[in-house]
């Protein structure tokens, strides 16, 4: 059993829904760095970050905005600051477990296309999930929110369809 501290501000998706118009691009990049690397105002914090999970040779296998938890902490300056950590490690497995038993776990828009083709989950498939989280941070919407999450969406993803990058996304 894994016990984590309570995340007072819920998950990233709900945070975006409530605050999207007030989140600066700087803050969006900061959130991505926290999720992936664990940097927080130039300090390294060993929480559940994707890099830490991968360093321990594990694969998350179900990374999406609902599994990114936000907590409010008074740190450094004493001001209110949100930091992120990855939750729901229930489907995580060692990276050495490369067998694909044709079972697909997760939320369709965040699942890497190769998984739908029968490949095993991998660190690279976790990175694909991060790409979808990045897209969600730029738009405030879940990927493919406007279509039904069914086999037809799976086929579209396999055919190369991806969410469109919005014009206001910095290059």
What does this structure look like?
By secondary structure, the protein is of the alpha+beta class. It has a single domain, classed as Transferase(Phosphotransferase), domain 1 (Orthogonal Bundle). It has helices spanning 12-19, 25-36, 50-55, 113-116, 123-139, 151-158, and strands at 39-40, 43-44, 58-59, 68-75, 79-86, 93-94. Helix 2 packs antiparallel against helix 5.
Tertiary shape: globular
CATH topology: Transferase(Phosphotransferase), domain 1
State the secondary-structure class.
alpha+beta
Q: What is the CATH architecture descriptor?
A: Orthogonal Bundle
Superfamily (CATH H level) name: Transferase(Phosphotransferase) domain 1
- Cα radius of gyration in angstroms: 16 Å
Order of helices and strands: HHEEHEEEEHHH
> What helical percentage do the residues reach?
25-40%
- The CATH class is Mainly Alpha
The end-to-end distance, rounded to whole angstroms, is 42 Å
**Widest sheet: strand ordering:** 1-2
Q: State the low-pLDDT regions, or none.
A: 39-47
Query: Strand content of the residues, in percent?
Result: 5-15%
Domain Protein kinase: 1-171
InterPro entries: Kinase-like_dom_sf, Prot_kinase_dom, Ser-Thr/Tyr_kinase_cat_dom, Ser/Thr_Kinases-Pseudokinases
Protein name: Kinase-like domain-containing protein
GO molecular function: ATP binding; protein serine/threonine kinase activity
């Amino acid at each position: 059993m894994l016990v984590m501290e309570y995340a007072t501000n819920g998950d990233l998706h709900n945070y975006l829904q409530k605050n999207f118009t007030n989140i600066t691009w700087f803050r969006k990049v900061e959130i991505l760095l926290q999720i992936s690397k664990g940097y927080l105002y130039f300090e390294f914090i060993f929480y559940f970050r994707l890099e830490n999970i991968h360093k321990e040779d594990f694969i998350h296998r179900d990374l999406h905005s609902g599994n990114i938890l936000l907590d409010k902490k008074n740190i450094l300056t004493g001001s209110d600051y949100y930091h992120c950590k990855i939750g729901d490690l229930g489907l995580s497995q060692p990276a050495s477990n490369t067998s694909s038993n044709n079972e697909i776990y997760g939320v369709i828009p965040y699942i890497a296309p190769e998984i739908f083709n029968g490949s095993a989950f991998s660190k690279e498939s976790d990175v694909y999930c991060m790409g979808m989280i990045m897209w969600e941070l730029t738009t405030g919407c879940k990927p493919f929110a406007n279509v039904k999450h069914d086999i037809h969406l799976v086929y579209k993803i396999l055919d190369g369809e991806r969410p469109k990058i919005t014009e206001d996304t910095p290059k």
